[in-house]
Amino acid sequence: MGNCLKRNQTQLQQNQQCPKCLMVFLAQSSALQYQQHVTNCRVRQIQNPPAQLRNVQVGDVVIEPNHPLNPNPNPNPNPRTTPHYIQEDFQNRKQKYYWCKELLPGSKIKYKWNKKLSPPMPAANVSEMLALPWVQIKNSEFPIKQTWFRLQLEKKRIPWQQGAETLSVNKESFLMTTLNMYKEINWHKEVKVHIDGDKVLDAGGLLREWANLIMKEIIHPESGMFQIADCDDVSYKINCEADTDEHIIDCFKLLGIVVGKCIFERIPLNIYFDRSIIKHIIGQPIFLEDIYYYDRQLYQSWDFLVNNKFEADDLSEYFVVYRQSKRDYYELKLGGQNIQLDMDNCQEYVNLCIEYYTYLSVKPFLTAFLSTLYSIIPKQLLSLLEPLELEMILYGTPFIDINDWRDNTDYKGAYYRTHQTIQWFWEILEQLDQFNLAKFLQFCTGSTRTPVEGFRKLESNRGNCSKFCVESVPFTKASPYPKAHTCFNRLELPMYETREDIEQHLKAVIQADLDGQFGME
């Protein structure tokens, strides 16, 4: 059985290109997979002639061969540079699942996570996918949208063969050193993070660590830039009382760069934004139900106003908002200090309050943030997504499925799935709660979250699929602890002799405070 499996997984040894659709199979792909694809591709081409390229116009969104979203006369990315994570969507036709964030039936506020079967791609290859109408993609299920969205981003990418950018940061002042450099970097290139005085080389892991640490520094309460939103989940809203000096505005611009780069490189964020920020990113209006994720008390007060009857004398509210930092009142409309709230104007009052709190009061910060975000991810592309869909792309899943983790793990060295040390390893992880599982995942991969497709979609750099891997190393008293290579999602696990030994050393790693330990590799 083992020999048969090895024959089926014989590698190509060198890159091979499909003669029909021009899709490239990397050298590490199996020969059997390549042969099956070529056979299927020939059959599909006979049954379904290639779709013709066409221009699509939807409102003010135009996608043409010479559009900024498509700077090449040839609208298709070079298949030689199409990342493996996208090729896999077309090559692997077996049933796949993803986690989907959906509103509960009849609710505009509450949602749940559902595990759903991924739909088949509506095209046989990358070229046909890119030729599909924008309207069809907009109305498609999330996995199809996400694949098309990522294909469009790949056309913005500058291949690593044309050189990489280096971001040199100082461990003691990584925010300030980043602020001094970020404007000089082309963020559509591969960016390698270099730590001054450190010999650690970045193959993708340091970029993830850098992004998460920058976000924590900017969103930390001491910065005064953000506040914790009053809602069920821990999320952050822009502080309307923040200073508007040049340094703060520059920090918001840097935050836009970080979020844009994380979307571009498919790095899940460890920090949530409130729903109003999400809607601003995709260019959608903000409604009362969105305030539930901004400030629950404001939501309840405004919801009461618009859904109940009352007498004018019951309220002494006027069309003004008190500004704490300036110690004055802001008129929501001209003459607002003399306009009293009543049944006829309460909806207008609520709408103006929403506009003030989520836009007007934070306009300079929001403008700075969006300007740099859109410089990496075009606004037209982001408008393709719904709020929950953008959150799925930004954050991945907020929970860890231990069975999915185990099913999508590779082993190297002396280890294999039923090895005694590996069995102990999974038994110990099964006993951990979600908080500690997330800490261990961060130790291994640099992120506390996985994509909505689960562990099968973990990546290393350059879009290469890189499943979690446990590699055996000798156990020595000089080096008794597991070691992680976050760039490759690989854990070097010593060959412990007892379950107690592995549990002791795993928990020591998990309980260590890793925040701020930049460049663990």
From TrEMBL:
Key word Ubl conjugation present: no
BP terms from Gene Ontology: protein ubiquitination; ubiquitin-dependent protein catabolic process
GO CC aspect terms: cytoplasm
InterPro entries: E3_ubiq-protein_ligase, HECT_dom
Every HECT domain range: 183-521
GO molecular function, one term: ubiquitin protein ligase activity
Active site annotation, chain numbering: 487
A Pfam family that the UniProt record links to this protein: HECT
Keywords (A to Z) from UniProt: Transferase, Ubl conjugation pathway
Protein's UniProt keywords contain Transferase: yes
Entry-linked PANTHER family: E3 UBIQUITIN-PROTEIN LIGASE NEDD-4 (PTHR11254:SF440), HECT DOMAIN UBIQUITIN-PROTEIN LIGASE (PTHR11254)
Protein name, UniProt field: HECT domain-containing protein
Species name: Paramecium octaurelia
